Amino acid sequence: MLILAFDTAASTAASALVRDREVLGERSSSRAGGVLADVDELLRDAGVEPSDLDAIAVGTGPGSFTSLRIGMAAARGLALALDIPLAGVSTLDALAAGAPGALPVIDARRREVFVPGPRAVRPEELELEAGTRCVGDGAVRYRDVLEAAGAQVPPDDSTLHVAHARFHALLARDFSPPDAVEPLYVRLPDAVPKASA
After folding, report:
1. Which of 111, 115, 164, 169 is most buried (CB neighbours < 10 A)?
2. Which tens digits make up the pLDDT trace of 71-106?
3. φ and ψ of 181, to 5 deg
4. What's the CATH fold of domain 2-92+163-180?
């Protein structure tokens, strides 16, 4: 089975092409909007056409609302256009798969982080056992707070802080019609319409 996987929920967008659990290629970008260019390069480098894909796996967050929407829209659009199924995989689960035993921590903005649950909490409210390893862009941003609580955070440039798309492909289980896959927002977006007077 040839699976295209990508995730745009965190500060680093990741994409991968996986055939029968073998990674054919992987890319990462600092912009969610660059994920389609990365996907195009992956397909070209592997010598496959979009029509060769059997399924798509997409990161469902939680993460940046706008970046998450970009990834979800791209995944749904591609799956619909190619008439292939889509599977959603939690960005937190993908981070955890890349760093077994670690606590995935995604920057939630508003001085909060997303952690398994999923839930949004202030970093200082996390109850951590001494030596807990924390990974993700939230762990990098709140390194001082987490380390003061006894956690260990790998160096900022460690690849453990990226939700590598290969794990999305490997964790994907429930492939379904594209419109059945929903994002994990955890909370309301920053911009909400004002109530009518």
Report:
1. 169
2. 999 999 999 999 999 999 999 999 999 999 999 999
3. -90, 125
4. Nucleotidyltransferase; domain 5 (3.30.420)
